[in-house]
Amino acid sequence: MSQTVRRILYHHRTQGKAVEGVHIRGVTDALRAEGVSVDIISLPGADPYATPKAMSPTRQATPLMKIISSLPEPLFELAEVGYNLVAGWRIWQYLRQHPDVGFIYERYSLFMFAPVWIARLRGVPIILEVNDSATVFRVRALSMGWLAMAIERWVFRKANGLVFVSGVFRDRVGSVHGDMAPAIVTPNAANISKFSFTAEQRAMARARWDLDGHVVCGYLGAFVPWHAIDRFVYQIADHLAAAPHLKLLLVGDGATFPTVEAFVKEHHLERQVILTGRVAHDDVPGLLAAMDMAVLPSAGDYTSPVKLFEFMACSVPPVAPDFEPIREVLAEGETGWMFKANDLDAAVATVLERSRDPKELARVGAAARAYIAAERQWRNNILQLLQFHGQLVEPTAQ
């Protein structure tokens, strides 16, 4: 399919950092590897390929973004609406200069309508990747929800196609908006080549963090309330003395990191709870190499956690909540284990139980990596995307 699509415009209004940057690079790199030229239009200064100084979810990519993000919600949303003028002008100019573009691939953002409108005016197909919606709960509550909903309903109907990260998300949005453009479900992914390590690298990583002789349960991601790593640490703390074989290796930072760090010091858990703080994404595979298993204490009930796939790609079997998007990609007892969502007691019990069987951890980890290698690399995602594009434009070509 890449033989018929030579150029794609990737448009996004994110800051290109943390998980969103991982996703953008994953899709873009996979397309380029298939011989497709990909041009990116984004917020000025939001380069997902820049050195990840903005990998922290609590830092803004540019000073301007820091100012805009601090605005009261109504003004912040007006700024989002106003950005259509900037995005629209840039996309219009791009399309004039690149008549060979096969289609526009946009990471959908609330209040964004100009790309769909311009694509329709210019007769260029546009596919929206949907990771957010006015129909779902938001930590930063909407002030103009009615406007966000109206714009979203229009763009979801007028786009040529939609890509959702989970089936439950697609169904939830569809139940609110009714008729929408054709849609596919594409969970997140990870590249095996970036999550491979030798026995020597594992030994070095474990020595670096004083993990030798222990079973290591890791966490990778933001220290934010909705991921609940802080509450997981508080919940498991009283059980660690009875599990001297177990160490936690927690990678990342965020709003709750200082309180977790203070808690660990106050309860003298430093030998069993290792906090690395924020690291560059290129350092992540080395830290994953030191882990025997991993925990996701919580996740969105409609999202597809990138970290889940990175754990699995690195042969690290995950313990994750049984939300529907996770059940779509995780086979219980085969590529990982699940606990009842929002039940941290169950999460702690599962981690403690599984930590006592290193051979089973290795078996399940190997199966998880094999699954990612066969079905859930970024190349799998973009081949599905290119096939989807072909199906969308085929009736027009006949």
Give the biggest sheet: 6 strands, parallel
CATH fold-level name of the largest domain: Rossmann fold
Strand content: 5-15%
**Global shape:** globular
List the domain count as a whole number. Answer: 2
Helix-strand makeup class: alpha/beta
Determine the fraction of residues in helical runs and give it as a percent range: 40-55%
Report the average pLDDT across residues. Answer: 91
The second-level CATH architecture of the largest domain is 3-Layer(aba) Sandwich
CATH class of the largest domain: Alpha Beta
CATH superfamily of the largest domain: Glycogen Phosphorylase B
| Low-pLDDT ranges | none
Q: Work out the radius of gyration.
A: 22 Å
SSE order: EHEHHEHEHEHEHEHEHEHEHEHEHHH
Number of helices: 15
What does this entry look like structurally?
It is a single chain. The protein is of the alpha/beta class. The protein has 2 domains: 7-189 and 377-397, Rossmann fold, CATH 3.40.50; 192-375, Rossmann fold (3-Layer(aba) Sandwich). Helices cover 44% and strands 14% of the residues. It contains 15 helices and 12 strands. The chain has helices at residues 18-33, 63-69, 73-97, 114-122, 145-158, 167-177, 199-208, 229-236, 257-266, 284-289, 306-313, 324-327, 344-354, 358-375, 378-397; strands at residues 7-12, 37-41, 103-107, 126-130, 161-164, 183-185, 215-220, 246-251, 273-277, 293-295, 318-321, 337-339. The protein has a 6-stranded parallel β-sheet, with helices on both faces. Strand 5 (161-164), helix 6 and strand 6 (183-185) form a beta-alpha-beta unit. Helix 1 (18-33) packs across helix 15. The two termini are 17 Å apart.
